[in-house]
Write a structure and sequence with these properties.
The chain has three helices and eight strands. By secondary structure, the protein is an alpha/beta fold. The chain has a single domain, classed as 2,3-Dihydroxybiphenyl 1,2-Dioxygenase, domain 1 (Roll). The strands form two sheets. Strands 1-4-3-2 form a four-stranded mixed beta sheet. A four-stranded mixed beta sheet has the order 5-8-7-6, with helices on one face. The protein is globular and about 45 Å long. The two termini are 29 Å apart. The relative contact order is 0.20.
Length: 130
């Protein structure tokens, strides 16, 4: 078994891909010609976005859309960076909502939390032990 994908169902796949590029520097690796599915060049594990239309066809009994919930869902995407403060500023400038300003944890790691326009919760963090 190998962890292969995280797929986030969103209202506008292209808008999410564009935001992740602008906010975090993650480039689009693939977008389906329908515009209903796209992937980021995010390293070994794929971070992808799919339309709510695709989500509804996959999960006909429904699901909670991240952008429809007043609070972030209980799952996050963690992006590791050597400069959490700069990454946090860049994400806010790109349109993210700051949920927690950068702080240093007792184990030395710096973390911050933002919520993307599509509702995705993102932790920006320095490498553990850095």
């Amino acid at each position: 078994m190998k962890f292969g994908y995280t797929i986030i169902y969103v209202t506008d796949v292209l808008a999410s891909l564009t935001f992740f590029d602008k906010a975090f520097g993650l480039k689009t690796r693939f977008i389906h010609e329908s515009g209903g599915y796209g992937e980021l060049d995010s390293g070994q594990t794929t971070l992808a976005f799919a339309s709510h239309t695709l989500g509804s066809s996959n999960l006909p009994n429904g699901y909670i859309a991240a952008d429809a919930s007043p609070l972030p869902l209980g799952i996050e995407i963690a992006l590791v960076t050597d400069d959490v403060e700069a990454a946090h500023r860049r994400a806010i400038q790109a349109g993210a909502l700051s949920l927690k300003e950068p702080i240093q944890k007792p184990w030395g790691q710096t973390v911050a939390y933002v919520r993307c326009p599509d509702g995705t919760l993102v932790e920006l963090c320095s490498p553990v032990g850095a």
